[in-house]
Automatic annotation (TrEMBL):
It comes from Paenibacillus herberti. It holds the Pfam family DUF4015. InterPro entries: DUF4015, GH. Residues 74-390 form the DUF4015 domain. This is GTP-binding protein. SUPFAM superfamilies: (Trans)glycosidases. It comes from the Bacteria.
Length: 396
């Protein structure tokens, strides 16, 4: 779907504090989707050069490491909720409904590892908190309640790592680490050291018993193409798209022997626009190398005209159905490489959109989104609510 650029720039206005994976995106984000260009200049190339995802020859064969996994119907759970009193409320909801999975922050949006660890490899790069004081006890409780556990790892948005290791980030001419308008820093997707660190976090999560690793913020900063030439950072002669896809492929290879699924969060409208070369995201290339793709298709994040809706937030069925039609069209051509489609859907009220542009989300609106998924052949989904307050609904 081709949209007027100025309309598309309105898509990513987000509620302060975040309204889903990739929270904090700005008006610049949409511009980077449309106007981005791939950087190819070699500056201080790393010793171990990042390679394009298809380098090295051979045919990539996709194998589901968990063919007996359930049809996942899950909720997002912050580390604070997972390690606190709210966990019991969430477990009760799952036990009363068809919901069966939790996506839990293991490395959060700031870059903190969310549990205490003595893993030297992780502590060399990262900083551990005690949000989840006893990870083994948490995993035991999840298993007792038959909860399918998914570890969310925020990858390239990492203010903590950028502060500790500026050479792994993007540095201004004055030597300071670049930050976006909200004070967040990113680390460099060209850096294999960054790749290996995040994969080490993933491997640690697998040791605890997580069945799936969900990578988020698998991209360069929003609007990166407008600032790339003014920042100092290591890069190779491959495109930003290939650097990001290369990480996804490498991560899957590194985790292949652990029988864990790999998934990636991605903007929902990526199925309806060309590859986002500015931030290095290509919907198809990333999907090819993951077991599960999770597009964020919250109706509130689309602007007037998308899928024929005057006020998309007020048309949950229409918007979700349209986004899934586009997603299938985008991914059907990759055949056996097509991943499980498991979207993030909306379980929050987008009051910031203003009168007439939003409505209160509850049981009917959540069920309308699920019906749209079912009607387009999609059986899995994840619910987002930043406060982890979820609606009691029919989750079939």
């Amino acid at each position: 779907m081709e949209m007027v650029y100025t309309t598309m720039l309105l898509l990513m206005q987000l509620l302060s504090g975040g309204t889903g994976p990739e929270s904090g995106a700005s008006h610049q984000m949409m511009a980077s989707y449309i106007n981005g260009t791939a950087g190819k200049t070699i500056v201080n190339a790393p010793t171990t050069a990042v390679q394009p995802p298809d380098a090295g020859g051979g045919t990539f064969v996709k194998r589901d490491p968990q063919p007996d996994a359930p049809e996942v119907k899950g909720v997002y759970v912050t580390a604070h909720s997972a390690g606190g009193a709210r966990l019991e409320k969430l477990l009760s909801l799952l036990n009363r409904t068809e919901l069966n999975s939790m996506v839990i922050d293991v490395k959060d949006d700031f870059g903190y590892i969310t549990y205490p660890t003595d893993n030297a490899e992780l502590l060399k790069m990262g900083t551990a908190k005690k949000y989840i004081k006893d990870m083994p006890a948490l995993m035991t409780k999840l298993k007792e309640n038959d909860v399918y556990p998914i570890a969310r790892i925020v990858v390239f948005k990492d203010t903590i790592l950028a502060a500790k290791n500026p050479e792994l980030s993007f540095v201004r001419k004055d030597g300071s680490v670049w930050k976006n308008g909200k004070g967040d820093s990113f680390v460099n997707p060209y850096s294999k050291e960054v790749w290996d660190y995040n994969i080490a976090v993933a491997k640690d999560a697998v040791k605890f018993g997580f069945k799936e690793i969900q990578f988020d913020y698998v991209r360069f900063p929003e609007g990166f193409e407008k600032k790339a030439d003014s920042l100092k950072y290591t890069k190779t002669d491959i495109s930003r798209v290939d650097a990001v896809a290369g990480f996804v492929k490498y991560a899957r290879e590194q985790l292949a022997d652990l029988d864990v699924r790999v998934s990636v969060d991605i903007f929902g409208y990526a199925a309806s626009v060309p590859a986002a070369e500015g931030i290095g995201q290509d919907f198809v290339k990333i999907s090819k190398y993951v077991d599960v793709i999770s597009p964020m298709i919250y109706p509130s994040h689309y602007s007037t005209g998308w899928y024929g809706a005057k006020a998309p937030d007020r048309a949950p069925y229409q918007v979700i159905k349209g986004s899934m039609v586009d997603t299938h069209k985008k991914l059907d051509p990759i055949g056996d490489h097509k991943p499980v489609i498991r979207p993030w859907i909306q379980d929050f009220t987008a009051s910031w959109l203003g009168k007439g542009n939003y409505m209160k989300y509850g049981k009917n609106e959540v069920e309308a989104q699920i019906k749209a998924l079912n009607d387009t052949g999609v059986k899995e989904y994840l619910l987002w609510n930043a406060g982890n307050n979820y609606t009691e609904a029919n989750y079939k």
